[in-house]
Description:
Arc Repressor Mutant, subunit A, 50% helix
Amino acid sequence: MELIRTDTDYAMRMLVHMARxxxxxxxxxxxxxxxxxxxxxxxxxxxxxxxRACLTERYMGPAGGFKLARDxxxxxxxxxxxxxxxTVAVRDCVLGEDAxxxxxxxxxxxxxxxxxxxxxxxxxxxxxxEVLATAPVGNGGTHSGRSSASRVSKTTRKGVIR
Length: 162
């Protein structure tokens, strides 16, 4: 289970790159995709979601592209996650009574509710500006395009176990 899905990770990486490199000029989807090792078509779909959520603005024409719609201090990681993946939840059962018939008698749901609240509070309190302040310079403050899990699985498929 992923609390923050790959598309949300990609969105956060592109937003960091826009904030760091774009400034007032729009950056094209291809530029953002290449800089962050994201498939271009997937990057474009994510950018469309961010634009619908008013986190980015789209500019048409030869010098067009995408740029932040607000200052990095005004964009929270929760806004990004919800724009891209919808509701962020530890488990479906924390989304309300209708999500799980066992909820009223479940001893685990109270603990998950606490975890859910803390996670949402953390994401709501963390801004893009804070991420920029702590992100290493180079590739937008992100890891390579492949997760360590995909590197391990590719290596394992070749018969080498690390």
